[in-house]
Amino acid sequence: MGYTLAILGCGVMGQAVLSAIYKAPKAETEAVASLYPSKIITCNHDNPSAQQVTDLIATFEKSPNGIEVESTFDQNVRAVQEATVIILGTKPYLAEPVLDGVRDVIDGKLIISLAAGWTIDQLQNYTRKVSRVMTNTPAKYGYGCAVVSHSSEVSAEERKVVDQLIGHVGKCIELPEKNMDAATALVGSGPAFVLLMLESLMESGIKMGIPLKESRECAIKVLEGTAKMVEESGEHPTVLKHQVCTPGGTTIAGLCVMEDRGVKSGIIRGVEEASIVAAKLGKKK
Ligand SMILES: NC(=O)c1ccc[n+]([C@@H]2O[C@H](COP(=O)([O-])OP(=O)(O)OC[C@H]3O[C@@H](n4cnc5c(N)ncnc54)[C@H](OP(=O)(O)O)[C@@H]3O)[C@@H](O)[C@H]2O)c1
Question: The Pyrroline-5-carboxylate reductase catalytic N-terminal domain covers which part of the protein (predicted)?
Fold first, then answer.
């Protein structure tokens, strides 16, 4: 039988990860199947948010890997006692009281922390086995991106468990922890920055007379198609950008105005500023 996974704090991100793990396609080999939990216990603070998780589970069909889910509130200690792997999904400012509450039963277990700003070093006050993850809200739809760093005490087999569990929220990329503040800005906050771009493209269509619905569809497809083109061609964005620029044409004219307005440096500086704030989050504790 598989192990038990506890999700301490099952809100937006916790539910995204829960859905992705629960719905993961059936493992093709015994070795892969053993990386999945047989049971997930979700932990929330009060009944209304536990009920939200119960309502979410009720929308699920049977799990392809036979995973059972129990939604609880005020049961953190019991859940951690029963679990081998713990996903920490509380807001960063609540991580300390929540972890203090399970201090006596968490030592020696693997924590997969989603909490922004919480360093491996800080989490190792509770257990030596720590995988720090920064993911984002598209994870809810299986299109997330996750950057992962492990403490040296996380074994090769446990790294496989983390990859398998987190890999279902989207692309999983391992980086050294020194890159985590940058990843928090690029990956965690990234969707908000891309949404600003999407909103701007959409409103440009509206300004020039294209109806809202069609402007929205065009903006979405331009962003989606361009990202796919970069991914599948393997080309540098500059090369692809120049392919769209006819000499003396419309695209280069638009790009020149955007350069005048500092769009590119605005984005770079904005992401950098977000990473500075992310670094401060960790120092507050
Ligand atoms: N949302 C994002 O875009 C995003 C992106 C990247 C990373 N993250 C990281 O993901 C983590 C979770 O963020 P979120 O947006 O998912 O937060 P959230 O929606 O507020 O979820 C946090 C959950 O923790 C629960 N909780 C609070 N106190 C608890 C306690 N004492 N015991 C057990 N559960 C408790 C809350 O339940 P109650 O409602 O009952 O209090 C809530 O369900 C954060 O650390 C954040 O840094 C989020």
Answer: 5-117
